[in-house]
Amino acid sequence: MDALKQELKESLVEQLNLEDITPAEIGDDDMLFGDGLGLDSIDALELIVMLDKTYGIKLTDPKQGRAIFESINTMSAYIAEHRTK
Amino acid sequence: MENQFKISSYCHVKQNKISLNGKVLFSVKPEESTFLKQAYKALNVNYSKFFKMDKLSQLAFLAADVLFQYENISEENQENIALVMGNKASSLDTDRKHQDSIQDKTSYYPSPAVFVYTLPNIMLGEISIKYKLYSENSFFVFENFKTNYFYNYAQSLIVDNKADKILCGWVNVDDEDYEAFLYLVTPNGDLQHTEQQINTLYNELWTL
Predict the structure, then answer these.
(1) What is the pLDDT of residues A45-72, one digit of tens each?
(2) Which residues form a coiled coil (chain A) (predicted)?
């Protein structure tokens, strides 16, 4: 699970072009949206594509993303349970 | 039409150089591929959303930011500054990236972050968001920079009291080629807002 969390942090920084932050600075429980990393709605769509492309997880209801993308911990738990790739 | 307006400042970006009012403000070697990122850091732009923009918007944003910093225009001022810009290649550079991502039907993963920039006027939105401009904005696609069109459009905005200032210019990106020329039309300034003057300033692009 730690390897997946590290992979997710690196993917966030690279794919969402977070120039002002490094993977090491993202805490497992940090909020990804709002006051946390400050991701926006386009980032949320990008994360949905990333789940599909990298882990073979299709989110049919974008509203699901709110809980899944709350933090690295919630993302990694969901991916570990549902991944097909 | 009486012309009481002036050009108070102008900015060129080309060949890995940024100039303000004819003087080079920042430059890196022509072979450097991270020019825009380096310029962002060197010019203290301090707007992390910059890195999410496509090259076209980054170019327009940077040139606008150079002028607004120089003119002490900030988001707190809430000024009525219209934006009137144009280019030749529209959003073609980003359109190609989007096309690449949907070309292979067996690996069809279009990026939302790329797709949102497949319109050239998004650059106006990026500038408006940063500077909280709730003003007139227009974007045109022309074969070449049409001085008389930009001049007349700016004049009509002034005459109709649609704006107090107007940020005008040309921002074009096509693969490795890029150029930006922005100028600010205001009530005060050293240069007359005339077609001849705009032409003279635009042509400085090719001497950078």
Answers:
(1) 999 999 999 999 999 887 888 899 999 9
(2) none
Q: Within a domain: residue B136?
A: yes
**Alpha carbons B110 and B103: distance in angstroms, whole number:** 9
Is residue B1 situated within a structural domain?
no
Identify all chain A residues contacting B97, using CB atoms and an 8 Å cutoff. none
Residues of chain B with confidence (pLDDT) below 50: none
Distance from the Cα of A42 to chain B's closest Cα (Å) equals: 6
List the beta bridge partners of residue B83: B137, B167
The residue of B52, B97, B101 whose CB has the most chain A CBs within 10 angstroms, and thus the best one to mutate to test that interface, is B52
The full set of domains in chain A, from first to last, is: 2-82 (1.10.1200.10)
Tokens representing B200 are: 């003279």
Question: For position B123, what pLDDT does the model report?
Answer: 97
Q: How many independent structural domains does chain B possess?
A: 1
> In this structure, are residues B133 and B83 in contact, taking their beta carbons and an 8 Å threshold?
yes
pLDDT at B127: 97
Q: Is residue B173 part of a domain?
A: yes
Specify the CATH number for the domain of residue B138: 3.40.47.10
Question: What is residue B32's predicted lDDT score, i.e. its pLDDT?
Answer: 83
Q: Does B116 contact A at CB distance below 8 Å?
A: yes
* Mean pLDDT score, A9-27: 93
Task: Say how many C-beta atoms besides its own lie within 10 A of residue B189's C-beta.
Answer: 17
B37–chain A Cβ distance below 8 A for any pair: yes
Do B200 and B21 meet the contact criterion of CB atoms below 8 Å apart?
no
